[in-house]
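Project standup — Tuesday

K.O.: blocked on the structure for the chain from last sprint. Re-posting the sequence here as requested.
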Amino acid sequence: MTTQKAEWQYIDDHFEDFVSQLREAVRKPSIAAQNIGMDECAEYFRALLESYGIRARIIPTAGHPVVFGEIEGKDRGKTVLFYDHYDVQPPDPLDEWESDPFAGEIRDGKMYGRGVSDNKGNACARIQAVGTLLRLRGELPVNVKFLIEGEEEIGSTHLAEFIRDNKDLLRADYGVWESGYMSPDGRPGMYLGVKGILYIELEAQGPSRDMHSGSAATVPNPAWRLVWALSTIKNEKEEILIPGFYDAVLSPTEREMELIRAAVEGREGRTTGHTASTPRRQYGIHSPLADLSPLDLRVRSLFGPTANICGFRSGYLGEGQKTVLPAKALVKMDFRLVPEQDPEDIYRRLRKHLDDNGFDDIKTRVITMDYPVKTSADHPVVKAAEEAALAVYGKPPSIAPTQGGSGPMHPFKEYLNLPMVAFGVGYWGSGNHGPNENIRLEDYRQGIKMAMDFIDRL
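H.V.: unblocked you, prediction finished:
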């Protein structure tokens, strides 16, 4: 059975109510890093689930609580688990927002607010989709579960432990990941995995306190020490120089290359007035990092590991002049990893690389790490999502075997063996984590309908 057009009409007729519920969620700050509004937002999502007839409860963890919901379906032998999160990034810098980041302001067909795309829009849309089917039919075709955590934006610190300790509660056959975005060519985007991540700090120590820069002739500068260490990690050709770094990297399969080619051909088409360069121009980037074809750039983006400097701090960075030799230098880095790279193995190789190159004095500290995961493109959950996208949007989705970002997908594979697919209500200009984060309301409407149709096709 597939979703009936009359049920889609119900979404249209009640869309203002759905938007109001999302707006209320956005108006509840839930900044995990600062422990602002977390319990209040968790309670909002518990109540929202319950309002649609979905049994829900808040389950404590060693950090911020998890909201869990479930409802049995007609086919008790099939279960789909929706994973989302209710926590958001801090809204800084506030002066770059055109409206209050927690107002959920609507203008020009978009809703603006911190977390509206990442991830409250998807969480609300999926609850509303399941709740609508339940209201109109009285029962669902399959069992549905919701896991809405509160620590995704701070590394999902306690999620793996929670999944491990609640395997029976969370057991499912299919999973839907928290993110999804419309492509610049107007097609719905689907993702089948995430990159892994190794996020670390490197620190160089100099004198016990900042000194006059006149001492630079005789006193080692930790900032230069750290710069020299960093220069051994990656060269100007974007090649990562850690021995063995690429040993476990897998090339895309033939099926994955088919999906990438189809996505690139759609993005380079002129029918919508958008090309692959449209998102780059939005950020003031006029040329890609490497002089490659669109196809090779896409393969590099999805299947190429990276070494990125996130921030560098040392010495005086205020207005005007202050001539100092800094006492220490600190850099934060992330390595985005691809199947079958192991973040623990990469960290060991990095540490050995620094030591072997004479930088054993550089301190390293792991902040977070997670493993790369992807679902086979031939899995039934992918087919169900692909067919639902075609039914709702009238065009085939742009399917990526993985994505450039990372997330806590590995515990779902390790403890539940759960195949995941990602689709959602964001778009290429949503601006997650930045000022003026937004979604287009029409994407939100269609996203609810796709979640409904997807459930019917499992």
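K.O.: great, moving the ticket to review. Residues 270-276 have pLDDT under 50 and may be disordered. The two ends are 10 Å apart (CA to CA).
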